[in-house]
Amino acid sequence: MEGLKRLPLGVAVLAVLVGIFGAIVLAGGLFVIAAALFHAATSGSAAAFGTGILSGLITLVIGAIILAVAFGLWGQELWAFVLALIAVGAAVIWFVGLPLYHGEGISSIANVPAVVSVVLFIYLLAVHDAFY
After folding, report:
1. Residues contacting 109, CB < 8 A, separation 6+
2. pLDDT class for 59, splitting at 50, 70, 90?
3. Are 45 and 39 in contact (CB under 8 A)?
4. pTM for the whole thing?
């Protein structure tokens, strides 16, 4: 079994955390879509419906990519490390930029995903040696 690499504890923790984060992001995307559908049904606003659906779909895609990366990280795949940096970096941009764009500010409760994604991004950089 010479070809098998031992999974470092830090990478295992990272894979699990990224997987949990991906599941939370997926759930958030579903929530945004459900909220857009509810808002459109109760108010008849097509503009809010389209914006909500688009935001929800983008969030779903980011969540699905993050989940795929979690499985690759567990296997210590270099592509997963690179994709993790890209996906979590995109999540940082999305979850930091979106509340700021809407004028909610840094203290907004919507920034909880931003803090989690920033922490995951920093942690990814800390365990990069396991992938080279």
Report:
1. none
2. very high
3. yes
4. 0.65
pLDDT at 132: 64
Cβ atoms of residues 24 and 113 within 8 Å: yes
Query: Looking at beta carbons, which pairs linking 76-84 to residues 24 or more positions away fall under 8 Å?
Result: 76/5, 76/7, 76/11, 76/130, 76/131, 77/131, 78/131, 78/132, 80/131, 81/124, 81/128, 81/131, 84/18, 84/124
Delimit the domains of the chain by residue range.
Answer: 9-131
pLDDT in tens, 17-31: 889 989 999 999 999
48 has a pLDDT exceeding 60: yes
The amino acid present at 117, given as its one-letter code, is S
Measured at the CA of 106, the angle between CA 119 and CA 102, to 5 degrees, comes to 115
pLDDT(4) > 60:
no
* Structure token digits, residue 121: 């991004």
The two tokens of residue 74 are 């567990």
